[in-house]
């Protein structure tokens, strides 16, 4: 990777310089405090579970509470790791204990080639969390290998996002299957009720006939044969009872499957609705641009006309398009990459020149996002987190402010998670 979207600090660089270090220089495995702070978010989010992380944060962050979201707990843990104090040591110990077996498996590696082979095997088998921690803290892991592993884990998150598009295509089939399961369960339940009622009636009649036959057995020779026939009838009814119990279990299983399918459908429908709204907003804006200058002002143009806009973070592949749309709608565009190449200290100097701050939550690091929120509160500026760095998310979000200029409003609330959308 010639130009990675993240920078390696001098501290992280001191742990590995391309070629494998001499054995005498390898004294111990790296700790969290030795690693580049840019790695902390990825390591904590990938290598330790939310429950364990919540217990650890409560012991070391006095302000942490039981109602904190998973995102708040994650932010606090990253802050502990960056501070390098007792909290960072506790995090390091918890990670070592949780992945002790994998660390011992990586310990015999004597060069970066062996470490790279172990990492490739972990990616192939899907056992990433323990392998990621063992590799990043191995004393022989250099900058290039750590950078490669960080990039692999970063791309896994994109693969998860891409899988959502396939889930949307399966929504129609899932809806049909859910309706079919519900209808099948209702028919089966009705049939079971009818069968149970008929069996109960037959059983009651057979018991009455058996009692009558036993009374007649002492008086008539034919009563014994009648009793035998009734006994056989009772055996058949018992068999029907067993079959009824099996059918009831199958009904319960079908109902549970239908409820699970409904839950998955609701989650996918919510995501599909958000993406559909963004696509509709983008299509409306494109239609206005194709219509030319005579077309009526679009929601995006009404929301951005005369606005001085600062866009922080984002993907290089979409920035040019977003800037063209913003400037075409009459906004003044400023951009800061969040600290990849531009210094983060420039943010404080840029805020007095803008009316609003916008940033995509999937393409900005924790430190920049927290700094932006503090600076916006200090300057009384509104800010808007976007669901993603896509053009559609920008058009949909900025086109919802018609009649409510961002420049004189309070900070804009968002129903999206500030990290995962």
Question: How would you portray this structure in words?
Answer:
By secondary structure, this protein is mainly α. The chain folds into three domains: 10-163, no CATH class; 171-290; 299-408, Aspartate Aminotransferase, domain 2 (3-Layer(aba) Sandwich), CATH 3.40.640.10. It contains 16 helices and four strands. A four-stranded parallel β-sheet has the order 2-1-3-4, with helices on both faces. Helix 15 (366-379) links the parallel strand 3 and strand 4 (383-386). Helix 3 (50-60) runs antiparallel to helix 5 (86-98), helix 7 runs antiparallel to helix 8 (128-136) and helix 11 packs across helix 16 (391-398). The longest helix is centred in the middle third of the chain and has 69 residues, at 223-291. The radius of gyration is 33 Å and the shape is extended. The chain starts with 9 loop residues before the first helix and ends in a 23-residue tail after the last helix.
What is this structure, in a nutshell?
This protein has 421 residues and is mainly alpha-helical. It has helices at 10-13, 40-47, 50-60, 70-83, 86-98, 100-106, 112-125, 128-136, 143-169, 171-217, 223-291, 299-304, 316-328, 346-350, 366-379, 391-398, and strands at 308-312, 332-336, 356-360, 383-386.
